[in-house]
From TrEMBL:
Keywords: Plasmid. Pfam families: CsbD. PANTHER family: UPF0337 PROTEIN YJBJ. Residues 1-27, 70-91 are annotated as: Disordered. InterPro entries: CsbD, UPF0337_stress_rsp, YjbJ_sf. This is CsbD-like. Residues 30-80 form the CsbD-like domain. Residues 9-23 have a biased composition (Basic and acidic residues). Belongs to the UPF0337 (CsbD) family.
Amino acid sequence: MDNQNVNEKSMDEQYKNNQKMDNDMNNQTLKGEWNQLKGSVKQKWADLTDDDLTHIEGDRDKLVGRIQERYGHSQEDAERDVDEWRNQNKY
């Protein structure tokens, strides 16, 4: 493996680690403000039930999973939808 491939791999790993740290911090914010966010979530994904929202408890992965179930989205599409919603709402 040449140096360029090693550097690219290292940069990819660093990017993934930074993304994970950002997601972890954002997940804490999401959980802490979940009661305030439920209305916005229901507005965006009206097919989610109150029981779904109770189950999700502000957990991004659970939200992604419920969106997959209710809307038939792939995991990637559901993750993108959630991340776009979070960015639009600064969460």
